[in-house]
Amino acid sequence: MQFFTAILAIATMAGLTVAAPAPEPSPEAAPQTPIDLEKRQSLGVFVTADINWGGRSEHLIVVRGQCLTLGNGWPNVISSFGPDSGLNNGCTGPSFGPITFPGIANLVSIGWNDRINSFRCN
User: Fold this and answer.
1) What is the pLDDT of residue 91?
2) What is the pTM (predicted TM-score) of this model?
3) What domain range includes position 53?
4) 4 falls within a domain
5) What Cα–Cα distance (Å) separates residue 99 from each residue in 3, 26, 59, 69?
6) In-domain check, residue 15
7) Distance between CA atoms of 89 and 105, rounded to whole angstroms?
8) Whole-angstrom Cα distance, residue 18 to residue 29?
9) Where in the sequence is the signal peptide annotated (predicted)?
């Protein structure tokens, strides 16, 4: 019985060692496409809970042209709002904007302190 088991194990290993190697991928098989770096950038908005960039802060990642509804404790508490410099067309809300880089350090000055629930950036 042990002889049969040993022969079976050797035959199995031999089958694994004589398998044909996988072919090398051809450069023609996978054409390269140019990379659009702008699509890969993580653009966003820096927000703080206190005026003049003070207090709790976070960099919120945004998708161009899509409305970002705030969560994580940010609705109605933002006092400073600054879009990244790559958001050239600014960010808008239902009644203010556009706000462009470097942003507004004191939203009290435009009547929007602690009133932002969502926004959209282009």
Assistant:
1) 66
2) 0.62
3) 41-121
4) no
5) 81, 49, 16, 17
6) no
7) 19
8) 26
9) 1-19
For 111, the token pair is 């009547």
Short-list 39, 65, 59, CA closest to 119: 65
Q: Is residue 7 part of a domain?
A: no
Is position 36 within any domain?
Answer: no
Tokens of 44: 């966003």
Residue type for 121, please? C
Assign residue 74 the CATH number of its domain: 2.60.20.10
Number of domains in the chain: 1
Alpha helices in 1-122 (DSSP H): 2-17, 37-40
Residues 6+ apart with CB under 8 A from 64: 43, 87, 121, 122
Which contiguous run of DSSP H or E holds residue 88?
A: none
Q: How does pLDDT run across 41-84, given as a tens digit for each residue?
A: 678 999 999 999 999 999 999 988 888 999 999 999 999 999 98
For the cut 50, the answer to whether the pLDDT of residue 10 exceeds it is no
Structural tokens at position 19: 């398998």
